[in-house]
């Protein structure tokens, strides 16, 4: 028997457990594929005596990271702890010890991906992170390898399962945000503190990673504009449906004239767009390249086995590089430096829902203000009456974000405008 | 400047032209990515003096394959001629000469993929063929690498753009096959002789390749059951719609109890299935793995630039292996041998549309014959009258194909059955 490739798992939570089970279940096939077995030698946990759902031999458990870093039999360290520290320190130690690293850690890759990839490169080892974005969906390797001949024009992703579950329910049942959030929490689809998901922060981390790969330039997390879904109402969804749109929380990145834009916010997309049919907790990433045209990658964005699937794919790839003494084969692909556009400069279409006084000339006045800021109107719906007020819904043609914001400020100050109920960007070519 | 990696293109048709243009347009970025430039050194054509749509320097054109095989500066040979010969011979010569090969040739890979991959392996070079299936959609590398930890359960693909265009038009416009085929031919979506597309042969080749990769066993083309879309009528599509189904030409492969099944035929799928929304000439491959769950890959399955995108992705990958002296990194993944189930043994649900005498007891008699063959009925629709005949539409529960066929033979011989208008398989879990 050939000498097995030793693997250490850091963390045995949801994804750690899934990864361990896949490696065990597929032991034989992985050996057939690689020619050598892959063997989990150590599993780092905080408490070696804690009861666990995944049956791991007690002898593998350790609470001492140093023993892993020093172990010459361990070629691949798999970080599945999440969060910044101590994961960041452990990964750096593993890379410096000449071990390849596989990670599912989006927080870390979004914040320190550049540094870690450089460290992997200088140590001649692999740092693979397919599982850090969109769970089991193959997207990082397809972008880095299969689509490498393309100049990417845009990437649009449904990359947070919790918010997609909530928006799908709201759309199907006509219910409001708070109600569905409660349901999602009861079902385990949303956490007790849902902030990171519903405010778009989780999606922003994944978008920073994806945009960096798609446009071959490091897109820093703090350059990503972020807006969550808490203000979306059943009413907005109903208006969207009437006009042929579906509301999704999208991570959007584009490159135009050498500048990159990156933003996470709820958006209306045409209901015929492939992303509009991505429902429940599913994720999907839609890309447009100058050669490939439109392509989309769809699947489960989270969960023990889906995310474990991506982790194990990376482990097998890193193991192959190890057996062929060819580690560090594909490293950082941010070979370029492109500025990130300030958010005010993006160009978009907008849906505005306004409560206005129900009297003659109101629409003309509003249209006048918009026109003064180069906002031209494509669609107007006015039908609902709320006491002596009316509700006006407008969809604009393409306009610069900063122009729209200036117009909104003026509208907000006008007597005839009772309230700007909502503003949602419309993503349509 | 570093010494460029020399590439030869065999063929300068649609895909050859697209590939050349992408390599030229993205010259700088490819060099940034690889650290060395990729340079087209020779282009094999039949007639060096023919006028061409893709502007290639005359000095690159040659009609002598031997000059390419002998050229030590050429590391990668890209076969884009299509068909079996002389492509088969040229690829073998290139592999034997120690050159890596990239090909978009589905006919060849479906028939001789095993032999060619073995030859690549024994010569320590790469044979990459992402472009041979589903044009620009990354699917072969995702299956071979990203999803390598999965036991694949099933793969269902819309892998022929012509038939998907035709079925989409038939569905949207209520028109019949012959009419839409004509339109597709006028638009250039279907060839003058459309046999290979509409009879499912093109899809069968791609399915043989995909099934071999998904299930890690060589699935021979002649083991794939093939049935085309020529018998699908506007009436079938309308009945399907009423019952919540969409008709697509699918390539289906599954593994159950160590046996593989592989078949291409029109199928009804639930309209909520992600494949049901794949319209026009788009392709998509849906897979289900034991870890990843459901995933789908969507994009353009043909065309100069989409297919060229996949070819260039492979060229960059092969070039990277070449610069790192690591050719032959991923070779054949058919490490197993699994029998292909005979078609009579597959289990499926079926839609039957029958013209029957319009008199009492007919349905009971038909149900009796089906029951005798263990075919149980899920849905019955009876509403249309054609003179003194009636039309009955049945959807069965799951049943073995051979049982259904026996029942159909008996039904066909019955006096009360005027005609079995159509039988379409229903793919639903």
UniProtKB/TrEMBL annotation, chains A, B:
BP-aspect Gene Ontology terms: methionine biosynthetic process; threonine biosynthetic process
Checking Pfam families in the record gives: ACT, Homoserine_dh, NAD_binding_3
Enzyme Commission number(s): 1.1.1.3
State where NADP(+) binds. 10-17
Give start and end of each ACT domain.
351-429
Involved pathway(s): Amino-acid biosynthesis; L-threonine biosynthesis; L-threonine from L-aspartate: step 3/5; Amino-acid biosynthesis; L-methionine biosynthesis via de novo pathway; L-homoserine from L-aspartate: step 3/3
Q: Where does NADPH bind?
A: 106
**Top EC class for this record:** oxidoreductase
Keyword annotations from UniProtKB, A to Z: Amino-acid biosynthesis, Metal-binding, Methionine biosynthesis, NAD, NADP, Oxidoreductase, Sodium, Threonine biosynthesis
Q: Which residues form a coiled coil?
A: none
* Reaction it catalyzes: L-homoserine + NADP(+) = L-aspartate 4-semialdehyde + NADPH + H(+)
Q: Which named protein is this? A: Homoserine dehydrogenase
């Amino acid at each position: 028997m050939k000498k097995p490739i030793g693997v250490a798992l850091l963390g045995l939570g949801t994804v750690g457990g899934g990864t361990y089970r896949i490696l065990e279940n597929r032991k034989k096939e992985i050996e057939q594929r690689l020619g050598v077995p892959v063997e989990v030698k150590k599993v780092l946990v905080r408490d070696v005596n804690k009861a666990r759902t995944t049956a791991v031999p007690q002898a593998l458990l350790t609470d001492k990271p140093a023993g892993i870093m020093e172990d010459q039999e361990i070629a691949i360290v798999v970080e599945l702890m999440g969060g910044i520290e101590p994961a960041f320190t452990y990964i750096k130690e593993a890379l410096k010890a000449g071990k390849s690293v596989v990670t599912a850690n989006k927080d870390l890759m979004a914040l320190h991906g550049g540094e870690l990839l450089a460290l992997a490169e200088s140590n001649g080892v692999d740092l693979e992170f397919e599982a850090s974005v969109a769970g089991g969906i193959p997207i990082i390797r397809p972008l880095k390898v299969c689509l490498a001949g393309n100049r990417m024009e845009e990437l649009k992703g449904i990359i947070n399962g919790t918010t997609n579950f909530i928006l799908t329910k709201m759309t199907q049942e006509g219910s409001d945000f708070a109600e569905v959030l409660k349901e999602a929490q009861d079902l385990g689809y949303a956490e007790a503190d849902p902030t990171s998901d519903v405010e778009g922060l989780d999606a922003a981390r994944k978008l920073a990673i994806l945009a960096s790969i798609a446009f071959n330039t490091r897109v820093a997390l703090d350059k990503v504009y972020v807006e969550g879904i808490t203000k979306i109402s059943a009413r907005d969804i109903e208006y969207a449906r009437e006009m042929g749109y579906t509301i999704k929380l999208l991570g959007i990145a584009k490159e135009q004239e050498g500048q990159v834009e990156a933003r996470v916010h709820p958006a209306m997309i045409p209901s015929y767009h492939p992303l509009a049919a991505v429902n429940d907790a599913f994720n999907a990433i839609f890309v447009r390249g100058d050669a490939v045209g439109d392509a989309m990658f769809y699947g489960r964005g989270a969960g023990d086995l889906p995310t474990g699937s991506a982790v194990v794919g990376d482990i097998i790839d890193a193991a192959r590089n190890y057996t062929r003494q060819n580690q560090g084969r594909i490293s950082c692909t941010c070979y370029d430096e492109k500025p990130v556009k300030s958010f005010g400069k993006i160009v978009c279409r907008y849906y505005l829902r306004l409560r206005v006084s129900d009297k003659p000339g109101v629409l003309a006045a509003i249209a006048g203000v918009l026109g003064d800021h180069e906002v031209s109107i494509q669609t107007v719906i006015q039908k609902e009456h709320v006491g002596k007020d009316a509700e006006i819904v407008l969809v604009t043609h393409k306009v610069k974000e900063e122009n729209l914001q200036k117009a909104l400020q003026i509208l907000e100050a006008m007597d005839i405008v009772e309230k700007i109920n909502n503003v949602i960007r419309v993503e349509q070519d």
